[in-house]
Design brief:
single chain; 3 helices; mainly alpha
Length: 80
């Protein structure tokens, strides 16, 4: 997956997140919707992480295609 594909995936996931949240303004999410939102959020974090890895590898003179998606527990464990 190249940078543009990752950015496209980020945009698609962000749009899904926005639509899900807007559909339930002032209301709670059903359990399956809350789980879907959580899945979207984790996927977004993984995409951003992969994009950052690719950019860092490129800046370091390394092959960005060698960047690998990290598992959700790793990405979700980062300090903000």
């Amino acid at each position: 997956m190249d940078d543009q594909q990752i950015v496209n995936q980020i945009n698609e996931l962000a749009e899904q997140e926005r639509l899900l949240e807007e559909a339930h303004v002032g209301q709670g999410l059903a359990p399956e919707e809350a789980e879907r939102l959580r899945t979207i959020e984790v996927s977004l974090d993984q995409c951003w992480d992969l994009l950052r890895q690719r950019r860092a590898r490129r800046q370091a003179g390394q092959n960005p295609d060698e960047a690998q998606p990290r598992p959700a527990p790793v990405v979700e464990g980062y300090w903000q």
